[in-house]
């Protein structure tokens, strides 16, 4: 699409890192030094046209370092500001939990994209999610949710359709749901390739392209 994109993986599980085919990641290549010491951003790796700051399991140790360092929650935002002229978009993949790394990512962002599974647990998580968002806004009043994204959707299940109706009633703006198509996701992860490389033109690839257009529109990015 011609955009200069930086992907910062803040999730110690490293799913985004794996999908980019990146392995043997040293802790110094992650956001760990940024988050715990206020160091500059590490040199990103290049993968599939993206600049990637990868993650690995030991990044979880940053949870303690961030909590014990005054002002650490702003370190990533400050580091990203120094390279903002080098990229058109910076994507921050935060952990699914509401821990210190998630706060670090939220306060570094200008807008939030929030996935919500079309499951009862997705509905049950909404109060906690809204409390967290309110906390982030107290610290960064200009922070907004650009898009909520229903995930794991199976239109054949009454449960999923009911939950989606509930999400549409309570959340805005809400994207079209992302269907549950686990096989291609799992296979592409094993291959270490994004879906667009592993299975171009597949239904999953079309889902991703559609969501990309929705996200770009919500962010005001021309693609």
Automatic annotation (TrEMBL):
InterPro entries: AAA_dom (IPR025669), DNA_Partitioning_ATPase (IPR050678), P-loop_NTPase (IPR027417)
Gene3D superfamilies assigned: P-loop containing nucleotide triphosphate hydrolases (3.40.50.300)
Residue intervals of the AAA domain: 2-132
Name the UniProt record assigns to this protein: ParA family protein
Annotated organism of origin: Deinococcus marmoris
